[in-house]
Amino acid sequence: MAWLFRAKWLLLPILIIVIAGGYAAWQYFSKWESTDDAQIEGHIHPVNAKLGGTVLSVSVQENQHVESGTVLVQLDARDYEVAVSRAAAELADAQAVVLGARAGVPIASSAAGSQIISAEAIAERAKGGVEVADKELLAAQARFRLAQARYDAAVAAAEAGRATVESAQAAVFEAEHGVAASQARVSQARAEFQKAQAEAQAAQSAPQQVTISRAQAQSAEARVQLAKGTLDQARLNMEYTSVKAPVSGMVSKKTVEAGQVVQAGQPLMAIVPAKDIWVTANFKETQLADMHPGQPAAISVDAYGGRVYNAHVDSIAPATGAKFSLLPPENATGNYVKVVQRVPVKLVLDQGQDTEHQLRPGMSVLVKVRVK
């Protein structure tokens, strides 16, 4: 019985140590929230063909590191060189048309002013000619009436000789011819006046011709801008024949080979940057009560034997992962079963943690966040 009594006294310190250790462990682990539902994330930049063509060369291999701006794929550019030459020729032609149209505007403006002044002067002269012809006609008609009166008087006078009558009759004939000639001149003068008026009215439309010339010049300038745009697009297409890396990183998913005919928008490869990475950890909603951005975290990477990287909480998603799924759950069907949801939390590595750039998107990690 003595040995049993001594055993009880030996178990008591052990029990105290176990209780103290359990309390210490509880104190430690209560300050942390952890999950193994986490993985490394990163940007994956697709490299697509911006236009169609035949691949002349591919200058990179799978998993090769490339710098931003490096030529990855070279397409056959001959068709696009022809397009650039054609666009340059069209631009030169359009610029020549603009020069001619601009030169015609001041000429049309000057001609319009002089044409209006000249036409109005001619119309005024023609109007004066009509007035003079009318006066001459009135005078000729007066002379005819006088000659007719003298002839009638000579015929009525019994003592008048034959010579006197014949002389009066000749004067009547002459006056009659004078009236006819004056009438002809009046008709001619009026015709010239009408012609001058028509020319003056036509000259009034000269400003419209100036407007038309200016519109033609503006249209030619617009064609120049269109030709410039076409040339710029052709040159841009020439640049697109050299497919370049959008960012620095590792080549992945290469599907292009020399001699292949590609189409616009066709995926050629992807570039995965090694620097810009983060961790997405899916915590249970019951673990988020004390979690907020800025809290320190530890990330254990499975691929490197549990190597730990220091990080911190960057942000917490505004909705659960289920809400972003292709088929979100519908809890209004009547067969609802409560399931603890998970919320994505973004964690960012601290400065200088991944200097070797060994972390890769998709790697599984264990995340612990200190919440207290």
Q: At CATH's second level, what is the architecture of the largest domain?
A: Orthogonal Bundle
First and last CA, distance: 49 Å
Q: Give the CATH class of the largest domain.
A: Mainly Alpha
* CATH homologous superfamily placement of the largest domain: Methyl-accepting chemotaxis protein
What composes the largest sheet?
6 strands, antiparallel, barrel
Radius of gyration: 53 Å
SS-derived structural category:
alpha+beta
Helix content: 40-55%
Stretches with pLDDT under 50, minimum 5 residues: 107-113
Count of individual beta strands: 14
Task: Report mean pLDDT, rounded to a whole number.
Answer: 78
> Proportion of β residues?
15-25%
Q: Order of strands side by side in the largest beta sheet?
A: 1-10-13-12-11-14
| Domain tally | 3
Sketch the topology as an H/E string, one letter per element. Answer: HEEEEEHHHEEEEEEEEE
Quick one: overall form? rod-shaped
CATH domain fold name of the largest domain? Helix Hairpins
Number of helices: 4
